[in-house]
Amino acid sequence: MTAAGWDVRQRHADPDVALTREAIAADLENGVSSLWLVLGEGAVRGSTPGGSR
Asked: Cα dist. 24→35, 50, 52 in Å?
């Protein structure tokens, strides 16, 4: 829980960055208060500090 009540978290693991970006935007517009991103092989591609992948 957060100070204001429940923390509504949505999990994202799709490796398609465009689909994940759209899904995240829709979730945030519809009340999600935090995100759980699954990173790595077969999931959302991450990047290292400095921008290289």
From this structure: 8, 23, 22
